């Protein structure tokens, strides 16, 4: 059985234009309006755990989620990526029945969330940090959740130890830092020992230790065969934890793919050039139609042409090259290109920002 | 559409190669070890969870303490005023009947406690919205209405005995202050009925608060509405002489309360009408709140 109606292979050339940047000038494209052309790596639904079909959520005139279809499968971390306002949280809230879809449906383990007899044992969810009464202790908060499902008291103590909150578990949660709130949220997600775990921006507010802890935890949970669905607006974070990606922008599906495939589809990879005559070479390349960025003195990042062509141009003019290679496209770059038109707040010098982002990425 | 995924073997290897070692092994083993296999979100469990939530807030205990202190304090005050022969009798206030009905005078002093308990009821619902814990609660009970039933049940279970103690405490304190000026007949059926009626009023106001909290989802709004209905509207409506306004005014909880508190048969409403009025104020807003919870996005 195939879950999706519009399946595109990762190598579908129809996706190419989304990755190209700069060359089309200021033209704004509406991604997905022409038949939902989103990149998909196909997944048979046999082992699907979260299945969203044509999910739509409208708030008045604003469409937060627009015809979203995707599946999340067990055994790996699936990153749910998109700029702020892309509809990630709304989608997650629809998965666990907090918000009702305007149309479409979403199931977890083949049933709507509301139909599960012991929901917390099926799906563990962290939606917002510190979704706890400030006057209540972490222990009592978790105890009440556990009691509502028939989960034992020992499990409460267990998850408190697991997230490292034992020293503060009996204190009122009002004094918790954002990081402690996140840990508590993760404790409540794990409380029912669920097969499916949904976390909305779990690394927000965590210190580097905490971020590392989350990454290890998520990968561990996935390795146990659980379904782990994690949202983030940071590709750099997802690149380190996720194996599969569901990317959305303005409520629409942009890609449902694997990290590997996403990198493979990058079509506009920059070429790094190091030359003592970088200035002259740069001018030549620009007049040949390439776009050139100075990375450092004597170092260029060139797009819009190939390494071969650059080598030829340099040879024709007798210019010395110390280095010439095609960069491996970073996930961040692919993601930025993909979501370029979907970001909620765009400014005139957005393109400049993006170049800056890219350079940082290259430097790092 | 363009590619049949099942024929594209190269891609599916990605997921096939990912580690999926005996998916649920860890989980079932864990459950066998600790014997904590969760077995369903049932209504009794929801009630237990709501009890944990209510008792684990310090504000709950403070609220109850304040309600008790106000009831006993005002009972003493009013008893002192009406048993002082030199004092002018307050007109229209809780001690209006004065020594003619010492029970009603003392129970009338618990009116401020009604407000405090109404706020407690509102907070049980609106507190969840204020802190965002409503999303946790609804993910645990996605069918939603059991959450409302559980909240109402816990309020009932706590407040029925509590308000009986509070009413009796107010009477006892009044008797102490009355001294020889008035004697409460503790065993008279009118006294028992008045105490039960007063408790019913206090519990009804708390449930009314719960309904408002569910409907308005905000503490400030719920409390404002509560004060308006329980305290501000009744005396204002008394000023209007149109019959239909009077008919409505007689169905306010405050009127039901004074009718039930009376041991001399001077109430506006019969006991049955008064109890039905209280029932309406307790049940209808909670039911509407449950309906709203069911229909709205959380």
UniProtKB/TrEMBL annotation, chain A:
InterPro entries: AAA+_ATPase, ABC_transporter-like_ATP-bd, P-loop_NTPase
tRNA-binding found in the keyword field: no
Coiled coil: none
Region spans: Disordered: 1-40, 344-364
GO molecular-function terms, A-Z: ATP binding; ATP hydrolysis activity
Top-level lineage group: Bacteria
Keyword tags: ATP-binding, Nucleotide-binding, Transport
PROSITE patterns: ABC_TRANSPORTER_2
Segments forming domain ABC transporter: 50-275
Transport listed as a keyword: yes
Pfam families cross-referenced by the UniProt entry: ABC_tran
PANTHER family xref list: ABC TRANSPORTER, ATP-BINDING PROTEIN
Similarity-based family: Belongs to the ABC transporter superfamily.
Protein name: ABC-2 type transport system ATP-binding protein
Organismal lineage: Bacteria, Bacillati, Actinomycetota, Actinomycetes, Kineosporiales
UniProtKB/TrEMBL annotation, chain B:
Keyword terms: Membrane, Transmembrane, Transmembrane helix
Composition bias, Polar residues: 1-17
Transmembrane residue ranges: 61-83, 103-127, 148-174, 194-216, 223-242, 272-293
Ranges where the record places region Disordered: 1-39
One Pfam family recorded for the sequence: ABC2_membrane_4
Name of the protein in its database record: ABC-2 family transporter
Naturally occurring in which organism (per UniProt): Quadrisphaera granulorum
């Amino acid at each position: 059985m195939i879950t999706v109606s519009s399946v595109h292979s990762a190598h579908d050339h129809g996706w190419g234009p989304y990755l190209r940047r700069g060359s089309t000038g200021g033209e704004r494209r509406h991604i997905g309006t022409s038949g939902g052309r989103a990149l998909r790596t196909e997944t048979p639904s046999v082992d699907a755990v979260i299945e969203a079909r044509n999910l739509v959520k409208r708030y008045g005139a604003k469409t937060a989620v627009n015809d979203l279809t995707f599946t999340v499968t067990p055994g790996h971390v699936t990153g749910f990526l998109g700029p702020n306002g892309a509809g990630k949280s709304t989608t997650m809230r629809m998965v666990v029945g907090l918000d009702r879809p305007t149309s479409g449906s979403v199931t977890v383990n083949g049933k709507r969330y509301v139909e599960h007899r012991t929901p917390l044992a099926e799906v563990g969810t962290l939606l917002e940090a510190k979704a706890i009464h400030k006057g209540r202790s972490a222990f009592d908060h978790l105890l009440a959740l556990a009691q509502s499902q028939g989960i034992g008291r020992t499990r409460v103590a267990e998850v408190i130890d697991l997230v490292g909150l034992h020293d503060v578990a009996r204190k009122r949660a009002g004094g918790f830092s954002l990081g402690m709130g996140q840990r508590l949220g993760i404790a409540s997600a794990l409380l029912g020992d669920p097969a499916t775990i949904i976390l909305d921006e779990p690394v927000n507010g965590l210190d580097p230790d905490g971020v590392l802890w989350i990454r290890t935890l998520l990968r561990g949970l996935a390795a146990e065969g659980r379904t782990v669905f994690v949202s983030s607006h940071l590709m750099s974070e997802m690149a380190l934890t996720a194996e599969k990606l569901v990317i959305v922008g303005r409520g629409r599906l942009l890609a449902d793919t694997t990290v590997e495939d996403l990198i493979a589809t990058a079509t506009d990879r920059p070429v790094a050039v190091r030359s003592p005559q970088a200035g002259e070479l740069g001018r030549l390349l620009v007049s040949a139609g390439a776009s050139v960025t100075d990375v450092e003195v004597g170092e260029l990042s060139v797009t819009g042409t190939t390494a071969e062509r650059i080598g030829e141009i340099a040879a024709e003019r007798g210019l010395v090259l110390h280095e010439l290679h095609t960069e491996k496209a970073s996930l961040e770059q692919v993601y930025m290109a993909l979501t370029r038109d979907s970001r909620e707040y765009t400014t005139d010098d957005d393109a400049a920002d993006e170049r800056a982002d890219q350079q940082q990425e290259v430097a790092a | 559409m363009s590619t049949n995924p099942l024929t594209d073997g190269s891609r599916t290897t990605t997921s096939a190669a990912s580690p999926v070692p005996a998916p649920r092994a860890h989980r079932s083993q864990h459950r066998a070890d600790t014997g904590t296999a969760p077995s369903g979100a049932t209504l009794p469990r929801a009630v237990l969870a709501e009890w944990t939530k209510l008792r684990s807030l310090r504000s709950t205990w403070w609220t109850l303490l304040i309600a008790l202190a106000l009831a006993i304090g005002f009972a003493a005050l009013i008893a002192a005023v009406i048993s002082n022969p030199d004092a002018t009798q307050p007109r229209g206030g809780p001690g209006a009947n004065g020594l003619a009905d010492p029970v009603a005078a003392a129970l009338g002093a618990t009116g401020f406690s009604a407000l405090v308990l109404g706020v407690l009821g509102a907070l049980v619902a609106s507190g969840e919205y204020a802190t965002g814990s409503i999303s946790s609660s609804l993910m645990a009970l996605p069918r939603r209405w059991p959450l409302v039933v559980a909240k109402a049940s816990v309020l009932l279970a706590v407040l029925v005995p509590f308000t009986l103690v509070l009413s009796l405490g107010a009477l006892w304190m009044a008797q102490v202050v009355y001294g020889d000026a008035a004697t409460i007949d503790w065993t008279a059926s009118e006294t028992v009925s008045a105490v039960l009626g007063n408790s019913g009023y206090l519990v009804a106001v708390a449930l009314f608060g719960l309904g408002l909290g569910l409907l308005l989802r905000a503490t400030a709004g719920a409390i404002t509405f509560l004060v308006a209905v329980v305290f501000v509207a009744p005396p204002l409506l008394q000023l209007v002489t149109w019959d239909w306004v009077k008919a409505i005014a007689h169905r306010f909880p405050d009127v039901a309360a004074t009718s039930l508190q009376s041991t001399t048969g001077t109430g506006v409403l019969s006991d049955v009408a008064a109890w039905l009025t209280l029932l309406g104020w307790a049940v209808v807003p909670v039911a509407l709140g449950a309906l709203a919870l069911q229909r709205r996005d959380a």
